[in-house]
Amino acid sequence: MFSLPLLISEDIAAMDAAMGEFVFNSGSRLVLFIDGGGFIVTRQGDCGNIDTATLGALAANSFAATQAIAKLIEDDTVTSLYQQGNETSLLILSVGEFGFLAVVFPAAIGVGSVKFYAEEMVSRVKRQLRDAHDRAPTQGLDLSALNLADATPLFRRRAAP
Amino acid sequence: MALINQATKEIQLKIVYYGPPQGGKTSNLEKVHAEVEAAPEAKGKLTSLATNSDRTLFFDFLPLETAVIRGFKTKFQLFTVPGQVIYNTTRQLVLRGVDGLVFVADSQYDKMEENVHTFANMIQNLETLNQNIANIPYVLQYNKRDLPDVAPVDYLDFLLNNRDVQVPSFASSAVKGEGVFETLNMITRMLLHKLLTESGRKAA
Questions:
Q1: What CATH number is given to the structural domain containing B194?
Q2: What's the predicted TM-score (pTM) here?
Q3: How many structural domains compose chain B?
Q4: What is the pLDDT of residues B131-172, one digit of tens each?
Q5: What DSSP assignment string belongs to A83-151?
Q6: Contact present, B144 and B150 (Cβ < 8 Å)
Q7: Which of A9, A55, B127, B170 lies at a C-alpha separation of 20 to 30 Å from A70?
Q8: Which of B22, B45, B52, B128 to mutate to test the interface with A (most CBs of A within 10 A)?
């Protein structure tokens, strides 16, 4: 089963536009769209020194653990996860079965304000992914099956003749 | 670190199954969960946090309880780690507080490099947590022995069981359940022996 529909450049551009507007309007630092396996699909904002690959993997772990807890307490739906910091906070928003958006923002900005602006971004991203899915319903991507972070198969020394 | 609760007379020990991606770590826990002979209250639910393609995302977790020893109820917490490169930080989180390790190696010839790298990664992650592999009981499981193109056990021992002290190793086919309980019984025995030895030393 695929974690993502097949995405074309127009899909990424539309998601980038929604995410870029959100970063501008909300004053957030960074927003990442991450698939269910923790792989980053696209991002907008300033990464700075943040290790976004690890952030994506850990955010996926947290969300999966939270969803498991939700099942234990008999509520299957987790729509968001909020981590409050002293300087920087993190809000993870579910985009249905496609993955989630991780928003890094200054702690001085209230999470309510970020959630307010995020509503439209989530709606637009979800709609774009739904359109991509409907375009090719039987095809898709599973980034965890591709094991993208493992670079060892990319270049190999040619075997001696 | 083993948790000993004097009030409830319980000992908790954490065993982590480590190994390369798709080597059989999850299959081990699935087989234990499906086939272990235990009272319903002694066998917990197998919790698997996985991706859509059933690859471990965070961990698999299976709690098991054994018969009372020296007046204590012993609870084993079995964990697996995700094998893929991107989840290295996650592996460090799961390794925290580990008492015993099962390294599940993939016996196929073309997986040897991955086995060695993952073993080195395990040692590195333990060092990050200020732990030394020499102080943690561990066993080796050479899995997928049922497949056609597998390396001899001697070769796997040469690659992976070549430290100053050799550890027990087991040939297995986790999907068939072969070698799974032998591996688990050995690591639990090693853990209990260490616990009893240390508690005896402290009492003295």
A1: 3.40.50.300
A2: 0.86
A3: 1
A4: 999 999 999 999 999 999 999 999 999 999 998 889 999 999
A5: E--SSEEEEEEE-GGG-EEEEEEETTS-HHHHHHHHHHHHHHHHHHHHHHHHHSTT-EE-HHHHTTT--
A6: yes
A7: A55
A8: B52
